[in-house]
């Protein structure tokens, strides 16, 4: 039996207060780790939304706003890009591919994205992953629709079903494009990005259902069945945004300047990485506050441990004196108490990690469903280890207080305690 | 200098602060293997004397030698080592660590002293068998070995304390009022067991008590007020 097992037995003797201490510090560690993981995954999920795209082009506004409405589908564009501008950009020699995006309609709360087949060819997310189909295939006809994974799952749709789109975005009481239903021809695999929550149709489809809606309301013309329309006549007049892929990354600034200086129309070209960073930075303060609060909570927990240990020291002075009489040195007494702090911290950290993983197991599906935030359950990252180390260090540091006090006691008391 | 002395005090003076000394002993010798009854009213500096011999305290003046080694010339750590290796203590009460079993309590000194472990092995024993033998001699049944010490009677606890003091055959045992928590009729029996065990290992015994009834069991008596020049009635 060494000092460590002596400390263990001593703890076992006071298991109730020990358990309380471990639970309180464990919960604080759980909070700290959860905040860190949420923060990290949110950022990851963010940065993974779009990759392989060199520039995003939209009407002139801010780059964060452009990013929000084109990629995250949050809010609406203030203005559109004309088809002519789009054609000019597409013909720029440095441009390798383009993905036109047209937003504005919805289906039962999910955004409808008008685009073309290049979307499925060039859109990349995460580590340059392509979109892949769980079922069906790319749209062919004007009234074909490809659903994101969440849309199909949440609404219980399957291939071949018909859906009608609503004019505008929102959840309820919108005017329906009821006379032009779309047929589901494809369902995408889950990506963990806003793609999962979009209904993809051809640009021409968007155009077709809006014939006669130029005033924002259906006119008599809109009430006719439009399937007989000539597809080539359905070229849209404007787009919401365009994603660009370039022949060479060196060309980014040249093309960006070309777009920003475009004389026919005020346009903006944003680098997705830079815009993502800026968007992320706007949230940095809130994250830092959250992080600071959880660090405080750990400090509170650790202070609680010191309090509990200091309280127990008075009852344990006789125990220390006995240990002194059988040959323990004051340093042994110090190590005994510090060892207890170490055991408390190790148990707390373990509880925190296990608790965090368990909590994540419960919460991750809900987060994904409600906010589209994908939280993969994984082992601790380097930064999480660092936080654990930090908490451990705090515990050891604070544990020095009761340990030093016990040391002083044992020097003063010797083998006899006068209480 | 007689190195055969287990304890030797020479012109020892000890005081807290700058006040008059609590203890002022010109000379005190206890021979190896001797069993001595130390008597003194409370406040006569008994506890201080034990702390000096045990190496917890160091006198401001004079020399305290234990087993021929001058404690005053040693560091605190070295004195702790002397105590761990060579001195067993028995106190009035609360001798035992409440969360350890009887056996674990007895074995406790072995963890702090390699010398005790060596002596146990030299005698061809293991710590466990040594503890069992001692407990057996002290009339503690072997079925008590794993029992939590809190379930023992005070008398049993004191005998466990004796076993712990004696494990690994220290040269010196200091007993500080070990019988005062016992019933009067048990004291004599306890003392006999203690003396017997000390004799067996030729262990020097310093038995501190104010119980006159036990005095007759010893050949040598030291009355603290006779050997200290310090004023009576101070705080000990």
Question: How does this structure look, described?
Answer:
With 419 residues, chain A is of the alpha+beta class. Chain A has two domains: 3-46 and 283-413, no CATH class; 55-270, no CATH class. Chain A is built from 13 helices and 15 strands. Chain A has helices spanning 3-13, 15-47, 63-72, 83-90, 118-122, 149-155, 203-209, 252-260, 272-282, 284-315, 317-325, 330-371, 382-413; strands spanning 55-59, 81-82, 95-107, 110-115, 124-125, 129-130, 133-136, 144-147, 162-163, 166-167, 182-188, 198-202, 238-239, 241-246, 267-270. In chain A, strands 1, 3, 4, 7, 8, 9, 10, 11, 12, 14 and 15 form an eleven-stranded mixed sheet that branches. A two-stranded antiparallel sheet of chain A has the order 2-13. The mean pLDDT of chain A is 85. Chain B has 236 residues and is of the alpha/beta class. Chain B has one domain (33-57, 75-227): P-loop containing nucleotide triphosphate hydrolases (Rossmann fold), CATH 3.40.50. Helices cover 36% and strands 21% of the residues of chain B. Chain B is built from eight helices and nine strands. In chain B, the strands form two sheets. Chain B has a five-stranded parallel sheet, with helices on both faces. Chain B has a four-stranded antiparallel sheet with strand order 2-1-4-5, covered by helices on one side. In chain B, helix 3 packs across helix 4 (114-122), helix 3 packs across helix 5 and helix 3 (102-112) runs parallel beside helix 6 (154-166). Chain B is globular, with a radius of gyration of 17 Å. The two termini of chain B are 30 Å apart. The chains are: A alpha+beta (419), B alpha/beta (236). Chain A binds chain B through residues 1-3, 6, 9-10, 12-13, 318-319, 322-332, 414-416, and chain B through 47, 50-51, 54, 56-57, 76-77, 80-81, 83-85, 89, 91, 94-100, 104, 107-109, 111-113, 164, 176.
């Amino acid at each position: 039996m060494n000092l460590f097992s002596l400390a263990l037995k001593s703890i076992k003797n006071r298991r109730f207060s020990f358990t309380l201490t471990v639970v309180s510090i464990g919960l604080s560690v759980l909070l700290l780790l959860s905040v860190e993981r949420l923060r990290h995954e949110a950022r990851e999920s963010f940065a993974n939304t779009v990759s392989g795209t060199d520039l995003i082009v939209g009407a002139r506004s801010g780059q964060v706003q452009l990013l929000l409405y084109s990629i995250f589908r949050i809010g609406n564009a203030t203005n559109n890009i004309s088809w002519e501008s789009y054609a000019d950009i597409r013909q720029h020699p440095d441009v390798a591919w383009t993905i036109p995006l047209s937003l504005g309609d919805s289906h039962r709360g999910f955004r409808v994205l008008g685009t073309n087949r290049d979307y499925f060819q060039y859109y990349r997310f995460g580590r340059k992953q392509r979109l892949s189909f769980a079922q069906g295939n790319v749209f062919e006809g004007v009234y074909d629709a490809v659903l994101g994974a969440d849309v199909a799952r949440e609404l219980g749709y399957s291939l071949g079903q018909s859906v009608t789109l609503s004019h505008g975005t929102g959840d309820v009481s919108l005017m329906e494009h009821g006379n032009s239903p779309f047929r589901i021809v494809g369902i995408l695999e889950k990506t963990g990005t806003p793609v999962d929550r979009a209904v993809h149709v051809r640009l021409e489809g968007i155009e077709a259902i809006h014939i006669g809606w130029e005033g924002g309301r259906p006119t008599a013309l809109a009430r006719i069945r439009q399937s007989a329309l000539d597809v080539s006549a359905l070229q849209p007049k404007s787009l919401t945004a365009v994603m660009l892929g370039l022949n060479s990354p060196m060309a980014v600034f040249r093309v960006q300047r070309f777009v920003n200086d475009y004389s026919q129309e005020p346009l903006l070209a944003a680098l997705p990485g830079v815009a993502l960073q800026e968007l992320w930075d706007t949230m940095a303060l809130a994250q830092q506050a959250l992080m600071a609060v959880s660090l405080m909570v750990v400090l509170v927990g650790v202070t609680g441990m010191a309090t509990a240990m200091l309280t127990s020291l008075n009852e344990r002075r006789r125990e220390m004196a006995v240990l002194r009489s059988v040959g323990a040195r004051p340093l042994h007494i110090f190590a005994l108490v510090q060892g207890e702090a170490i055991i408390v911290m190790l148990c707390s950290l373990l509880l925190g990690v296990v608790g965090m993983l368990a909590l994540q197991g419960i919460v991750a599906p809900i987060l994904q469903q409600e906010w589209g935030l994908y939280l993969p359950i994984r082992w601790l990252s380097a930064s999480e280890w660092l936080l654990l180390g930090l908490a451990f260090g705090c515990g050891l540091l604070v544990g020095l207080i009761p340990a030093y006090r016990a040391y002083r006691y044992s020097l003063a008391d010797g083998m006899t305690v006068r209480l | 200098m007689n190195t055969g002395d287990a304890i030797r005090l020479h012109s020892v003076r000890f005081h807290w602060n700058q006040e008059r000394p609590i203890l002022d002993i010109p000379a005190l010798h206890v021979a190896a293997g001797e069993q001595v009854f130390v008597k003194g009213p409370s406040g006569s500096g008994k506890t201080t004397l034990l702390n000096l011999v045990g190496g917890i305290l160091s006198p401001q003046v004079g020399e305290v030698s234990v087993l021929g080694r001058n404690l005053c010339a040693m560091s605190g750590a070295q004195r702790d080592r002397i105590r761990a290796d060579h001195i067993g203590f028995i106190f009035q009460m609360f001798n035992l660590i409440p969360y350890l079993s009887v056996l674990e309590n007895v074995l406790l000194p072995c963890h702090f002293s390699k010398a005790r472990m060596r002596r146990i092995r030299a005698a061809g024993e293991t710590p466990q068998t040594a503890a069992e033998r001692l407990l057996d001699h002290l009339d503690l049944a072997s079925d008590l070995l794993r029992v939590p010490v809190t379930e023992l009677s005070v008398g049993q606890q004191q005998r466990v304390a004796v076993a712990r003091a004696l494990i690994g055959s220290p040269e010196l045992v200091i007993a500080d009022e070990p019988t005062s928590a016992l019933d009067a009729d048990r004291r004599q029996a306890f003392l006999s067991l203690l003396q017997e065990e000390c004799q067996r290992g030729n262990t020097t015994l310093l038995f501190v008590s104010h119980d006159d009834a036990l005095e007759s069991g010893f050949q040598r008596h030291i009355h603290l007020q006779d050997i200290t020049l310090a004023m009576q009635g101070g705080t000990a």
